[in-house]
Specification:
258 residues, Pyridox_Oxase-rel (chains A, B), Pnp Oxidase, Chain A, 27% helix, Split_barrel_FMN-bd (chains A, B), alpha+beta, Flavin-nucleotide-binding protein (chains A, B), homodimer
């Protein structure tokens, strides 16, 4: 269900192509980010380099000031991942924060139509613009580390050795991105063919059309050789089962829509 | 197996963090691109906008001049997707091509260690830098459209209504990206904990460690309500089975490595 809040449209985030699929709804956009196992973060090139930087990173939406905030409320994006020294150096040296673009995309199905031009994906994608700063306050940093750890497997933080020691706190950096604008796109349903193909019996009689649903599946967990805990804990078993049921239900429902 | 060709290291593509996971091998990088259902393409911001553009697009590696070239040979990246008018306008107005960065990332497993700081993902990622130009020659454009269609489902092109008519040829644009540099990263194996945790029985006795393998699974295809072909064709059934077996074998093997 749509939330009351929407992100403002800016020149860079307004969807022009297939704008019937566009959304600026805060809850939808935050959900796409939180359900993506990887985000792609881009920032402007150096003066001598024409290519923008682009990095895969782990991240999640959250509010340190209002930790109980829901997905339909204003949230920051916290990032942790393959943080090159370059992004950290740039974020440190930008008093207003480093301008970054964040992309989250989930493929939910391969949509096969009568002709290649009408093929598509079922998908959910979001693009966020914001200013990235390094989290300096220890309390906020610890909170964000727990948030990000638990975004990968809920309750993992408290079920492993915490808190991080001082060496770990020093070597880890967390970025907080204040979001200024964002947009999303959602495509669901079966193929949409034009009448020029749908009315041709030679085409419809020979071309299978439909959707191959796609899900990111969590397989049966495999213990490390040095694992000493005999039984797989419930918080992992339950999460694997719940996530698989949730993403499959979404993809199958999206595929069955007209 | 590594190929003899490697991409040159440039300032923007040299891996500094976790550089033991780095690869510049042409075959590895091309494979990561071709096995990714979505690529993220970034290009520099407008003068008045600090945020780089970032778009999810469909693409694949290929060589129009040497169509039988293998993955370990020089290839271009052909892109088709949510092509905003902006990227097309910029590519058209850049005589040398528009500088773009392309990212491909596949998550293969959640790696759970004794402490959050040692958690990781098994993953394969690639970043490519190159110059994007619009494919103008009809012969190359048709070839690339077939290549991209068949990268989603092999043999789909010839099993649907082709060739595209003139309206479809006009409304579709394909970008060819000449790659100038690229790098990849591959992480596989179980968790690597430090001795400070691995020697503590209270930690090892209470914390399950291992890998939750992650796969992009293709589910049972769902026919569209208007589908007229009774039986699912073999080229689709076979592809779904082969892809699922391949990605699961990769993720499980990666999880079981030390």
């Amino acid at each position: 269900m749509a939330s009351p809040l929407a992100y403002p449209k800016t020149k860079g985030t307004t969807v022009n192509r297939y704008n019937n699929r566009a959304t600026y709804d805060v809850k939808t956009i935050h959900s796409i980010v939180n359900e993506s196992s990887v985000l792609h973060v881009s920032f402007a090139p150096d003066a001598e380099d024409p290519f923008p930087a682009i990095l895969p990173m782990i991240g999640t939406m959250g509010s340190f000031d209002y930790p109980s905030a829901d997905l339909d409320e204003p949230l920051d994006c916290y990032l942790h991942g393959y943080v090159s020294s370059r992004i950290m150096r740039l974020a440190t040296s930008s008093p207003q924060g480093l301008p970054v673009s964040i992309a989250a995309t989930k493929v939910d199905g391969l949509v096969l139509a009568l002709t290649p031009n009408a093929n598509s994906y079922n998908y959910r994608s979001a693009i966020l613009h914001g200013y990235a700063s390094i989290v300096e306050k220890t309390e906020e940093k610890l909170w964000a580390m727990e948030l990000i750890t638990n975004s990968v497997v809920p309750d993992r933080w408290k079920n492993s050795r915490v808190p991080p020691d001082s060496a770990e706190m020093q070597s880890t950096k967390i970025l907080r991105v204040k979001i200024t604008a964002a947009s999303g796109k959602v495509r669901e349903g079966g193929p949409h063919d034009e009448a020029k193909d749908a009315t041709r019996e030679d085409v419809t009689g020979s071309t299978w059309i439909g959707v191959v649903p796609v899900v990111e599946k969590l397989c049966e967990p495999i213990p490390a050789s040095q694992n000493k805990v005999g039984e797989l804990p419930n918080y992992i078993t339950d999460y694997v089962a719940e996530m698989n049921a949730k993403v499959e239900a979404y993809a199958l429902n999206a595929a069955r829509l007209p």
